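Centromere protein J C-terminal domain-containing protein
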Amino acid sequence: MPRVCQASLPASNPRHLQVALADGSSRVYFNNGDIKWTVPPETAPGMVDHSSDRGGPLGIGVVHYFYAEVGTWHSTYGGEGGVEVFYFPDGQTEAHHPGWGKEIMYPDGLMRVVTTDGEEVEVTQEMLSWAIQQPKPRVDGLDDDAL
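Predicted structure tokens:
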């Protein structure tokens, strides 16, 4: 379990718990079960780290958000306007790339790219971006059933 530096119930919104971690990341736990996990660029690893579910290539920052009501993770790499990756409970994963379209990995193994003009192209895993190949985030080793 990560070491906690500070935990607080902010006076401006006592309906969620903010936790600052020793590694520089932070988490916000909301009453409705949602979780927001922020990893700043300076603490994200320099390479894709599949073992810790943190960061992306070249140490870019990432924000992971878990929508409890629908069981979906939403990760944004590189801040506002960055690549957005959605992990749906049925196993589908989508990466939305600003300006050129989205990649979709279906639970049955089918992989597609959808361009901004709506063209759909079947692709192989080698053709997919680093973003869509990131593992689904996990907070403190909890899986979706525990959340």
